[in-house]
Each structure stands twice: as structure tokens, then as C-alpha cells.
Amino acid sequence: KGFASMVGMNEVLQDSHLDGVVKICHRVTPKGIKRTLRTTKVTVYIVKFVRRIFKLINKYKSVLAFLFILQWTKSATFRPMPVNKRAQKKATKKALKEAMKSSRSGFFF
Asked: Given a cut of 60, is residue 109 above it in pLDDT?
């Protein structure tokens, strides 16, 4: 209240407003200032880092798109086809029978 009267704002401010300002001033501590400063520095660093990453991605956007398409085609090309186990077993038996027939016919002839 003394500072307000020095400035000439004695009549303008009510006691409830002055009490609120005093409460805020009492909550400001060196520990709180350090914590706020540290949090602000970390936030600024993260924002700058994310900006640099976005600039880099924007710069090499076409190369990244080409690499993604290349990887997709590679995985699509070398992906194993689904196999029907029953049909595979049947085809193996049939091929084995044919091989046995051809080997027998050549053995005696």
C-alpha cells in the first residue's frame, strides 16, 4: 500500500486488489523462479529442435517419399505367398509318384 501511495494510485486500488498482489508476490520464490526458467529453456530447446526436424523433412521430402515407395515395393515383392497346406501335400505326393514311375521305367530298360 505504501508503494501505491508513492506512485499516486492510493485511491484507485482497493484493499482486496492489494491483498491479491501481495499473495502473488509472496508465492514468488528463488526456487520457483529457477524451476520456471529451466522449464522455459527446455521448452524453447524442444521447439527449436522440432522446427529443425521439420525443415529437414521438408528439404528431403521427395527423397523420403522415394525411399518409402522403394521399401514398400521390396516388401511386397519378397512377401511369401499364402500356401494351402493340403494342396501342397497333394502336389508333393503326385510329384513323388511321377518320379518313382520314371525311375522304375528307366531302371529295367
From this structure: no
Q: Distance between CA atoms of 97 and 104, rounded to whole angstroms? A: 11
Say which DSSP state 12 is in. T
Please give the DSSP secondary-structure letter assigned to residue 80: P
Which element (helix H / strand E) includes 26?
Answer: helix 15-27
Joined grid coordinates for residue 38: 529451466
- Alpha-carbon distance of 47 to 40, in angstroms, equals 11
Q: Give the DSSP H/E element, type plus range, for residue 87.
A: helix 85-108
Is this model's pTM higher than 0.70 or not?
A: no
Measure the CA–CA gap between 26 and 37, rounded to whole angstroms.
18
